Every structure is written in structure tokens, then in C-alpha cells.
Amino acid sequence: MVAISSSTADSESPNENRESYRLCENTPPFSLSTWEDWKKYLKKATRRITVVQQPLERFARSFRKICVQDQKCYDCKDNVACFMRKLLKDHEKLAEGLEGTVRTFLTDNFSPQTWNCHLHRDLHNVKILKLGGNGPEKLEFARNLNVVLNEQGVPPELQKIVEKEVMKIPLKLSDEEKKIMETVKRDEDLWRLFRYLYEHDFTVFGYKL
């Protein structure tokens, strides 16, 4: 979630902080987790936007980085089916309140995007911006973002900087990530499990299954 309430901007480049993608992650309201705390900061002039990715592409990118490269996925290594089943069990516990409201490292990184940013409470007041991996998709995202920035009084020269930085974001799907996507869609049982967890994201954000 990004909240834009004025024309102020930080001089730090978004691409200098790729680990978190949050230039203000330790600053309220970005550091607040409860809806009650969030409401204290929301004003009529505040524009809230949420950046989303195509759910299967997002899963493939995260799986390659966290599971294949870092090997932090339930000892499943590169076994997508093994990981998906264990991930679903953790999410079911979280959804039923059996694990409280605190997510694990994996549920935090792999939870449906509709579970974030209090979207279940206030979706109609949030601008959804889709960020894709290829050049045209990133350019469309940058231009849509600049529409919001312009409405909030951000100077044109800063909008150009934002667009330039967006185009540098390394989101192009690798061959390995494409194979992960194919693995999920090709296996009927695995595709069913994937849809069970992420189908709401496709529906809410307007992506085709």
C-alpha cells in the first residue's frame, strides 16, 4: 500500500532499495499493521494505491527466489506440489484464526494480494495499479501512477524520474520462472490447489485465469 498525501518526494531512488520496495517502511502510516491505527492517518486528501502483479507470475518469481535459490520453503526445494500443499495448510490455519494474525515468512511472501493493505475493508477507496514484467506493461503502470501523482500535485520533472525508475525494475520473467508457471498450469491437481488460494486475486484485480 502506498499513501500519497502531498507533493513531497524523497531523493532516494526506488531501485536503490529493492530488498523491501518500501522507501518509508519504518515511517507511519507505512509501519502500522492494524486498521484502527491506519484510520488515524487517513485524510480526505490522501490517495491510496496498491500495486499488484498477475498472481501466477508473482508466485513464480517468489518461488524461484525463495524456494529454489534460497531454499526456504519447507524443505521442498524446487518441488512446487510439495510446497503448494504445505503453503495451503499454513494459510488455512491463518484464515481460521488458529495462528493468530501474525504471518510467517512464507505466508507473508505468498499470501494472496487481496489479503494485504486492509483491502477487505476499504477496497473501493484504493486505486489498483497493475505492474507487469515486460516493457509495455511497466510503461503503462508508470503512466497510470503518474496520473495519480499529477492529481496530487507532484511536479512533472519528478513524474519523469518515477517513470524512469519504474522501467528499471527487474520483473521480466526468466525461463526458469516461465517453467514454474507451466508446471502449475499443466498439472490439474496443482492448478486446482493454486486456484483455491489465489482465484480471488484474479477476480478482484481483473486478471484472466
Automatic annotation (TrEMBL):
Residues 1-14 have a biased composition (Polar residues). GO terms for cellular component: membrane. Residues 1-22 are annotated as: Disordered. InterPro entries: Chst-1-like, Sulfotransferase. GO terms for molecular function: chondroitin 4-sulfotransferase activity. It holds the Pfam family Sulfotransfer_2. Coiled coil: none annotated. GO terms for biological process: chondroitin sulfate proteoglycan biosynthetic process; positive regulation of response to oxidative stress. This is Uncharacterized protein. It comes from Caenorhabditis japonica.
